[in-house]
Amino acid sequence: MALPPMTTVARMLRTTTEYLAGELASPQATAPDWSALEWRTARAVTAMHGISGLLAVRLRWQGPLGWAEFLRSQHGHITERQARIEALLRLVADRCRQEGIPVQALKGAALCLEGVYRAGERPMADLDLLAPRQDTERLGRVLETLGLQETHRTFKHRVFEAPDAPRPSNFGEHAGNDLKIELHDRICEILPHRQTDISHLVLPRAAVAGLNPYPSRAALMAHLLLHAAGAMASRSLRLIQLHDIDRLGRHLAEEDWQWLLDWRPWWAWPVLALSARYFGEVMPPQVASGIRALCPVLLRHACARQRLSDVSLSRLWLEAFPGIEWAHTISEAVAFFARRIVPSAELLSERKFELLTDPTLARCDWAGLSQSRRILRALRSRTPRPRPLYNVREALAGH
Fold first, then answer.
1. What residues in the chain have per-residue pLDDT under 70?
2. Does the model's pTM come out above 0.90?
């Protein structure tokens, strides 16, 4: 299928995203009345938001020819890949136990270990691990003995992957994609300039050699919320992240929610409010009002108007200063503006790495532009973001 005008793409991304979010929360008996283009866009949305496995088991309708088959295929790939990741985690945990290194599985792997998801429901692009800072070098050497090499570093993790890894399939889930490990020594996000670190909440209080759980389900929730907050600020939130919060939230006891409130997470309300908008409230009312009160007033007002398609990978249009509403003060906003105009050496290095390794950037000139030209283009005219546009193109091409 030919790519329609960008305004049409933007509209279809928004409408299909919001409809599928509603279906995930409350499945309807009949399929939507979509055009062929909209059905293809819906495939792009399910791929970007990581919800194909859930839709495969929750939808009550079949849709047009190829739609149900696409979801079943994705469910199969997720199931097979999850088994591979679990096997890798067992191997790493066994080696760490032998070497006296504590290690912790994060986010998706932890949710699966907790029994929050069944096999095939939740995709995992890679395996996220956390280790105390003093043990990460030794753990890095353990990963090297498993045939993995460090390929990249960011401010919060190191990436390990096989040196001869094949080019990944970047549309949706594929069981054959090589396994990567992201090794963390801290848990933090930049919102939008302020670095928010919750490592003290997430690290086990009495770690033992081998695999350790989160200290509590409240700690796992805090991590999911902070990670989703960073994604909201960068307009890269995924629907699966909101679903994680809803699913885990229904497993939390009242004391878990109270612990979360006692940690004074100013960044939690926008994510919890957005999750509740689609899936319903899971917090006790007194905890909800307490967490809402911790959120800065301007951020609270901004997020009250936001839908998933405003702050996620379904937002087609680039912004010059995404996430500015997360700044606490004028000085923080100014620092954020400065960081956007003159990006750090670390950010430039990360962009260069993405340009070399991320197929979603291969068919656009955006990734190769200087920061000043990026901002000027975003301010001057509507410019599509590379990743959503890539996924739409792949879906229209027949994936």
1. 165-170, 348, 351, 353-368, 378, 399
2. yes
